[in-house]
């Protein structure tokens, strides 16, 4: 590969990641903070036992999250890949299938669970003193989980189109309403623990309505809802199964986490009672903070990974994953240090005092130590799901979610009591790392399971659109294409067209300079593929005309159309993508 003065950088990927990360972090922060503060308010206004009753219902929340991942994680990658491949009808059908499937399952959840909330109370809590409060809270929490399932999936679908700001505002509205109403219902109206459940439900409705209205009216919306039954029930069911297969690993991970939470609550309830369960509720808060940071990082990265992988830009995929992992480790490393040195930050928030301080602090410290390993396992499970490496993703989800920690908690609790449960949180990470290394060695690859270098790539560079870089990319492309066997005349025509494309990208980039990636490949069947990707203003070189509307901005495109087998333009994830096949 020839690079010359220009070289491949991560500037475009990093800018897009930052663009998605900030609103995704805000929405993730608002979502998890709302759940945390719901428990904090209950703990401070009503007591720690009532807070433990709230958190004892959380396995249902995890199951709803699992279903949401079942429907959205795999499908968001499928939609992104279909859109990047210009299969817009297929992308619309997958989008509509997921929306229809989610609405159906959310309705079935209400029908199935609301009549059995008393039995669920017995099932979820091994501490009898928590059950009276749970009977008041659980029916409203079931409604919340159904609404959460529906709107979490919709938020994932909306984010695949780069509309992260709508999502963050929707979640912010939801959680502000939740927090304000929780204070009002409990503090002013004295609705007790049922007030916290009612606040959750009303917040869900307000945030969800905002999301649907603003997505429907957005001019940047690329997907449209279609009647999935027009082509028959069989096609809908087939597509639904494919969607669920794609998201199975992430859903299984969340499901097993829910089972793990429930089983550890049972162990703690039997050996330590409500006091030990309230310590675990504090650990769940810390886990929520870690999940908030991890999910923001992963949710921002996976649409980019899907797009790059669909374009077979393996160096870009690798660069995105390395940056993601570094970022996750930095954020969670800082959280570990903070909790290890100052656990009283959370203890004071919940009003923990007296004899409960020391055991609660110990629980928080060991929970914090487990977060980086868990985050890396989750990151890789989602990544393997995006690459459709379902077997390793499923096995990794089983190991991380259930297979190691629960048996370890049972064994260590018999040796060390309640502290043994906290020690068990540290046992999964070594098994996760060993599993990834063994699998990657067996398939003859590194942990990313993609080629280190694509032998078909002749030229892979990045640049900031401008006059000097446009001239350079033109001369480099001419040299590369002549070396690949094109005639001097044809290579020069393509080089000039690339120069004009780069100049027009620069001209349209009014607010900020546009980053451009250019890749030239010589395929095994003799085709020359030129891919141009930029983060500038929407710009289709085949359609854009001059300001007076009478002539093309690029006369050379007419020559290029005559020379090329095909010229395609697409806009995916807020990026212009032009593919020229010679």
Explain briefly what this protein structure is.
This protein has 582 residues and is an alpha+beta fold. It is 72% helix and 6% strand. It has helices at residues 11-45, 48-56, 58-84, 88-113, 117-124, 131-159, 164-188, 193-217, 233-246, 248-310, 314-341, 344-350, 357-386, 390-403, 405-416, 418-424, 428-442, 467-483, 488-508, 555-563; strands spanning 457-464, 515-522, 528-534, 566-572, 575-581.
Describe the structure.
- This protein has 582 residues and is an alpha+beta fold.
- 72% of the residues lie in helices and 6% in strands.
- A 5-stranded antiparallel β-sheet has the order 1-2-3-5-4, sandwiched between helices.
- The longest helix has 63 residues, at 248-310.
- The radius of gyration is 26 Å and the shape is elongated.
Stretches where pLDDT falls below 50 for ≥5 residues?
A: 545-554
Q: How many DSSP H or I helices?
A: 20
Helix proportion of residues, in percent?
over 70%
Strand count, sense and barrel status of the largest sheet are: 5 strands, antiparallel
Features:
five-stranded antiparallel sheet; 6% strand; alpha+beta; single chain; 582 residues
Helices and strands, with pairings:
Layout: H1 11-45, H2 48-56, H3 58-84, H4 88-113, H5 117-124, H6 131-159, H7 164-188, H8 193-217, H9 233-246, H10 248-310, H11 314-341, H12 344-350, H13 357-386, H14 390-403, H15 405-416, H16 418-424, H17 428-442, E1 457-464, H18 467-483, H19 488-508, E2 515-522, E3 528-534, H20 555-563, E4 566-572, E5 575-581
Antiparallel strand pairs: 1-2, 2-3, 3-5, 4-5
């Amino acid at each position: 590969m020839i690079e010359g003065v220009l070289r491949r950088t991560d500037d475009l990927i990093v800018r897009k990641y930052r663009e998605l990360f900030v609103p995704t972090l805000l929405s993730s922060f608002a979502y998890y903070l709302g759940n945390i503060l719901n428990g904090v308010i209950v703990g401070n206004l009503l007591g720690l036992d009532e807070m433990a009753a709230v958190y004892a219902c959380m396995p249902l929340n995890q199951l709803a999250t699992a279903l949401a991942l079942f429907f959205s994680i795999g499908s968001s990658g499928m939609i992104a890949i279909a859109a990047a491949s210009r299969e817009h009808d297929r992308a619309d059908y997958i989008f509509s299938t997921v929306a229809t499937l989610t609405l159906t399952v959310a309705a079935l959840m209400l029908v199935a669970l609301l009549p059995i909330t008393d039995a669920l109370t017995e099932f979820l809590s091994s501490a009898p003193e928590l059950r009276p409060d749970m009977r008041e809270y659980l029916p409203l929490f079931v409604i919340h989980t159904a609404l959460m399932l529906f709107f979490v999936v919709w938020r994932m679908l909306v984010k695949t189109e780069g509309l992260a700001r709508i999502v963050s505002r929707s979640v912010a509205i939801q959680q502000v309403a939740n927090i304000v109403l929780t204070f009002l219902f409990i503090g002013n109206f004295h609705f007790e623990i049922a007030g916290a459940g009612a606040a959750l439900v009303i917040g869900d409705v307000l945030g969800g309505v905002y999301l649907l209205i603003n997505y429907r009216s957005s001019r940047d919306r690329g997907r449209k809802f279609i009647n999935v039954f027009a082509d028959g029930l069989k096609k809908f069911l087939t597509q639904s199964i494919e969607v669920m297969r794609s998201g199975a690993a992430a859903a299984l991970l969340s499901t097993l986490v829910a089972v793990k939470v429930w089983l550890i609550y049972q162990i703690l309830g039997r050996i330590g009672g409500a006091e030990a369960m309230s310590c675990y509720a504090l650990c769940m808060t810390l886990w929520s903070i870690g999940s908030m940071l991890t999910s923001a990082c992963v949710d921002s990265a996976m649409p980019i990974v899907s797009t790059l992988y669909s374009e077979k830009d393996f160096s870009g995929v690798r660069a995105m994953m390395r940056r993601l992992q570094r970022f996750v480790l930095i954020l969670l490393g800082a959280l570990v240090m903070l909790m290890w040195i100052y656990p009283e930050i959370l203890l004071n928030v919940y009003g923990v005092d007296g004899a409960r301080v020391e055991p609660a602090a110990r629980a928080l410290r060991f929970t914090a130590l487990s977060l980086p390993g868990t985050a890396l396992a989750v990151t890789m499970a989602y990544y393997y799901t995006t690459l459709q490496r379902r077997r390793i993703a499923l096995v990794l989800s089983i190991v991380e979610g259930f297979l190691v920690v629960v048996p370890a908690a049972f064994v260590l609790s018999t040796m060390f009591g309640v502290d043994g449960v906290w020690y068990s949180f540290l046992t999964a990470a070594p098994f996760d790392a060993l599993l990834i290394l063994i699998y990657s060695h067996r398939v003859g690859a590194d942990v990313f399971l993609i080629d280190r270098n694509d032998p078909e790539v002749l030229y892979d560079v990045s640049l900031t659109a401008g006059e000097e870089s446009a001239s350079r990319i033109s001369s480099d492309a001419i040299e590369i294409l002549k070396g690949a066997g094109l005639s001097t005349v044809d290579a020069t025509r393509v080089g000039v067209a690339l120069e004009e494309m780069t100049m027009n990208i620069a001209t349209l980039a009014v607010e900020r300079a546009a980053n451009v990636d250019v890749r030239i490949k010589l395929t095994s069947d003799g085709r020359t593929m030129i891919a141009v990707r930029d983060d500038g203003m929407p710009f289709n070189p085949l359609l854009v005309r001059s300001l007076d509307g009478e002539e093309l901005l690029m006369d050379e495109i007419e020559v290029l159309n005559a020379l090329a087998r095909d010229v395609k333009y697409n806009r995916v994830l807020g990026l212009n993508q032009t593919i020229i096949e010679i």
